[in-house]
Specification:
This protein is of the alpha/beta class. The chain is built from 13 helices and eleven strands. The strands form two sheets. It has a six-stranded mixed sheet, covered by helices on one side. β6, α6 and β7 form a beta-alpha-beta unit. The chain is globular. The N and C termini lie far apart (about 80 Å).
């Protein structure tokens, strides 16, 4: 190659790199200011405040992106009502919403599976399905027609069955009971004669205290104690058959998501995954301390539901799930994936987790 040709090619390469540099710099220096709403009130522990919460997620994203992605967080009622996050993200009014997918079962029945399924998997199993069993891909397939993407960003672990003003001795005691309970579990209870109500967290205590409802499910000992539910009812039933692992959802407008550079998308995904684990760890500590206080100091009677009630709830759950699957092919696709993974996980859990609790823990 001649000296002149080599010089020409060298100069061309330099010029090309210089011309390409502004595009790279612009992509790395562009800043995004987003809004994120929540189904939970400002200051709510776990959901809006503390380790793994919506505000913690926004802080992690801001710090990891060096301020390139700033997310302003709004509690329920600050920008939109508690249960309008789905529509707000879909319309592009906000870029993100932090809530639980089962609030959107009226939009798509399959959404329930990405929060909790009655008699479903625990935290470990749910994460296995979501991250490595195709769950997140199905989640995004369900939301694709709505122009949204989603991912897990928190988990309460196993929840409690709830607070009851009167003792539950048999299935007959459920008939006519007015209870706050969302999701598929509400349909199951309704089939057994319960008058189901869906209320935001902030409305549960006054409704229970005034007798508007006779029973209520919220989250677990720490969250429930903070709402003062132990002051309105004393029977606290365990363990939550309806939500053995409750996933928090980060819902994102897909058009806005696609505008983010790949590194910012990776930051959001990894921050959400971190909050998923961190929030569940916080719940374990907070709930263990709160449960001890409720029983020892506040006169709460904690006990499991009678076996015949659990048996009836399980039977109705199977019917409710079968009805949902029969109506919608996409729900069936999600259901089949979830249950196939659960079957494998249950076999492994019998050998690992159950054996530990029965034989090793003592």
């Amino acid at each position: 190659m001649s000296l002149i040709r080599r010089q020409f090619l060298s100069r061309a390469a330099v010029a090309g790199s210089v011309l390409g540099a502004p595009a790279i710099v612009n992509a790395q220096s562009a800043k995004f200011n987003w809004k994120m709403t929540s189904a939970y009130g400002k200051g709510s522990p776990f959901y809006m405040d503390g380790p793994g919460s919506a505000t913690d997620l926004a802080k992690r994203i801001r710090e990891m992106s060096d301020g390139r992605l700033n997310i302003q967080v709004f509690g329920a009622g600050e920008l939109i009502p508690a249960f309008e996050g789905f529509d707000a993200v879909r319309a592009g009014t906000v870029e993100m919403n932090h809530a639980n997918a089962y609030f959107w079962t009226g939009k798509t029945a399959a959404a329930q599976y990405f929060t909790a399924v009655p008699f479903g998997m625990n935290f470990q199993g749910m994460n296995g399905w979501l991250y490595d069993g195709g769950g997140i891909d199905l989640w995004n397939e369900v939301y694709a027609p709505f122009g949204m993407v989603a991912m897990p960003c928190g988990n309460t672990g196993v929840q409690m069955t709830g607070w009851f003003k009167k003792e539950i001795k048999s299935v007959a005691d459920l008939k006519g009971l007015k209870m706050r309970i969302p999701g598929l579990a509400g349909k199951v209870y309704a089939n057994l004669g319960v008058d189901v109500k869906v209320l935001p967290g902030g409305e549960i205590f006054p409704a229970l205290e005034r007798g508007v409802i006779d029973a209520a499910e919220f989250v677990g000992p720490f969250q429930d104690r903070r709402l003062g539910l132990q002051k309105a009812a004393k029977f606290y039933y365990t363990t939550g058959w309806h939500e053995s692992s409750t996933v928090s959802e980060l819902l994102i407008n897909k058009a806005a998501w696609n505008k983010l550079p790949k590194d910012l998308q990776a930051i959001v995904s990894n921050a959400a995954a971190a909050c998923n684990v961190i929030s569940e760890g916080w719940c374990q500590k907070a709930n263990s301390e709160a449960m001890e206080d409720l029983i020892k100091n506040q006169g709460v009677i904690a006990r499991p539901l009678p076996d015949d009630v659990i048996k009836a709830l399980r039977a109705e759950t199977e019917k409710v799930l079968a009805e949902a699957v029969a109506k919608d092919p996409l729900t069936k696709k999600v259901h089949d994936s979830y249950m196939a993974f659960k079957a494998k996980y249950d076999r492994w859990s019998e050998i690992s987790e159950e054996a530990y609790h029965l034989k090793v823990r003592g």
